[in-house]
Design goal:
Blueprint: H1 4-9, E1 45-48, E2 74-77, H2 81-86, E3 89-91, E4 96-102, H3 113-118, E5 126-133, E6 136-143, E7 155-156, E8 161-164, E9 175-182, E10 185-188, E11 193-194, E12 219-226, H4 232-236, E13 251-261, E14 266-272, E15 278-285, E16 290-300, E17 309-321, E18 324-336
Antiparallel strand pairs: 1-2, 2-9, 3-8, 4-5, 4-7, 5-6, 6-9, 9-10, 10-11, 12-13, 13-16, 14-15, 14-17, 17-18
């Protein structure tokens, strides 16, 4: 997905007014709190970082490809549409004044060319721009229809609720698209530098120390055990529980959804049944980079029924590079009666 066109379509969100009372005092360092009421790595994950490569290549600030060409923001994803329905609050990352806002755009994932045409000129979806003074602005996109709690000209405090994470505009999954600007130039909040600085220079992050924001090279953000081939649409809609197996299920399938897979990653599936018996083990090699990958492995039932008891599935992604091997895992447990 090419996000460079978004900047041209978001002129309605460009702030031009002068600093007002309540914005950050001149000379003080500009800092950001985490803009979603979630715990990074547990209830939300970074799906994409800012693309700091000025050419056709894709590079985040760590020189990895955890971005899209021309992507000007940090995308903070939640697990699925069910979590979106329950409500995940978007927070002002710093005190300021609301300069622009829009609501009324339908929450609808892009699935085909027809759905893309519907959001032309509204790629940000429902969103807010907050002016923090001294040239700093933050922009919040893809918020839930009808959830916005602020109006233009309103002063907001850091951490104040602006609305909720949604699925409006140019997006395929529920997330917050956070863009940071200084003097109208895109800034990567993970380095505090303009994107022209490129990758490999850590800089000084804008995140407050108490925000506890860490870089995620890969995120295994959802997993489960199904009684047959898993339906990806049901899972990403938040209905994975309906796939839970029983004693008569034709198969046991361990599935996982991942942000940020790279060529050469090894994904190992391992399912342990009652009495610590190995039900199956499988390993797959990733053959292409993907921003988001859904993958599964399993085994068919060979007996009259599955043994009653506890089943624990673990998915481990192994990545070898620069002389080291890193492992990232996620586990799920079910009970078959």
């Amino acid at each position: 997905m090419n996000w460079r066109c978004i900047a041209l379509a978001l002129l309605w969100l460009s702030a031009t007014a002068a600093t007002e009372t309540g914005t950050a005092p001149a000379g003080e360092p500009f800092e950001l709190s985490w803009p979603v009421a979630c715990r990074l790595g547990e209830t939300c994950w970074v799906a994409d970082y800012v693309d700091v490569d000025s050419g056709k290549d894709v590079k985040d600030f760590r020189c990895r490809e955890r971005s899209y060409d021309g992507h000007d923001s940090v995308d903070i994803a939640i697990r699925d549409k069910a979590v979106m329905g329950q409500g995940m609050t978007v927070l002002a990352a710093a005190p300021g004044v609301v300069r622009r806002m829009r609501d009324g755009v339908e929450d609808r994932a892009l699935t085909d060319e027809a759905s893309r045409k519907l959001i032309v000129g509204h790629e940000c979806g429902n969103g807010v721009v907050v002016d923090h003074g001294n040239g700093w602005q933050t922009q919040y996109c893809h918020m839930k229809q009808g959830s916005l709690l602020v109006k233009e000209g309103q002063q907001v405090n850091g951490g104040q609720a602006l609305g909720q994470v949604g699925l409006s505009g140019k997006t395929e999954f529920p997330h917050l698209h956070l863009t940071v600007r200084h003097e109208k130039q895109i800034v990567d909040p993970f380095t505090g530098q303009h994107i022209t600085a490129g990758c490999g220079s850590e800089g000084k992050p804008l995140w407050r120390a108490d925000a506890q924001v860490a870089y995620e090279e890969v995120a295994l953000y959802n997993a489960g055990i199904a009684g047959g081939p898993p339906n990806i649409e049901m899972i990403r809609s938040g209905h994975a529980d309906s796939l839970t197996p029983n004693a008569q299920s034709p198969a046991l399938i361990l599935w996982v959804d991942i942000f940020g897979v790279e060529v050469g990653d090894q994904i190992r599936f391992r399912l342990i049944g009652p009495d610590n018996t190995l039900v199956f083990e499988n390993e797959q090699r990733v053959d292409r980079r993907q921003a988001r990958r859904f993958v599964y492995a399993g085994t068919k039932r060979q007996s009259v029924s599955w043994a009653a008891g506890v089943y624990t599935g673990q998915v481990t992604l192994k990545r070898a590079e620069q002389g080291r091997t890193a492992e990232h895992s996620i586990s799920r447990t079910i009970t078959i009666q």
